[in-house]
Design goal:
It is a single chain. This protein is α+β, with helices and mostly antiparallel strands and 218 residues long. The chain has one domain: 3-Layer(aba) Sandwich (Aminopeptidase), CATH 3.40.630. The chain is built from seven helices and nine strands; from the N terminus they run E-E-H-H-E-E-H-E-H-E-H-E-E-H-E-H. The radius of gyration is 16 Å and the shape is globular.
């Protein structure tokens, strides 16, 4: 896909330790070995159903790519999803998505992410979420961000808590066909602003805003 025809692919979020790049096919191809090896291959399983990363090879790779291509091709006022590849020391190591549902009305985003197993427990998850929040609040004008994590997903829940989210109840979801409790988290713009960072840089956002049906100046 041409970067000029789809501006979200040009968006970049840069922190002192990592970068979020719009998920071009070239970057996705570099992530295929990680997907092939298995992102979610041990308990506790982090994703709710349906999730292509739970599928067996080679179906997993194909379904993962198809989901991203489908998401890029169905940007609508009522729902859009930005896909970013997480680049650490020049190497793609995971993905960080930012999702808007009726964003024009509610100014709320949610996030989704995964990391290669060998770079976990190094603070990367928190840093990539911080980058996504900076894009949402400083770049897109969000009022609120939400997140969900299964109650036994200690790492994801700690990231939300550490970034200032507040608890917002629980709900049930299935993972690999089995019911489990999801924790809900919510972060308002005012809470984010208290610890807003000045070492995160954005580029390509202005050209992206019209594609997401965000009016200039909003």
């Amino acid at each position: 896909m041409s970067l000029a025809l789809y501006p979200p692919l040009n968006v970049r979020v840069v922190t002192p330790t990592l970068e979020l790049h719009g998920a071009t096919d070239e970057l996705l191809a570099q992530l295929l070995p990680v997907v092939r090896a298995g992102v979610a291959d041990r308990e506790p399983f982090p994703f709710d159903d349906p999730m292509s990363l739970y599928e067996d090879n080679p179906v997993r790779e194909r379904r993962w790519l198809q989901a991203i291509w489908r998401g890029r091709g169905t940007v609508r006022p009522e729902q859009w999803r930005l896909y970013f590849v997480v680049v650490l020391d020049g190497v793609p190591v995971g993905m960080q998505d930012v999702i808007g549902v009726h964003f024009k009305e509610f100014r709320t985003v949610s996030t989704f992410s995964w990391l290669a197993p060998d770079v976990r427990r190094r603070g990367v998850g928190r840093e990539m979420r911080a980058a996504a929040l900076h894009l949402a609040f400083a770049g897109l004008g969000a009022r609120e961000a939400t997140s969900e994590a299964f109650s036994d997903n200690v790492a994801s829940n700690r990231v939300s808590e550490g970034l200032g989210y507040r608890r917002d109840g629980t709900e049930w979801a299935t993972r690999r066909g089995q019911p489990a409790v999801l924790n809900r988290w919510r972060l308002g713009r005012e809470e984010w602003a208290v610890t807003r960072r000045d070492d995160i840089d954005l580029s390509g956002v202005e050209a992206c805003r019209p594609v997401l049906f965000i009016d200039p100046g909003e």
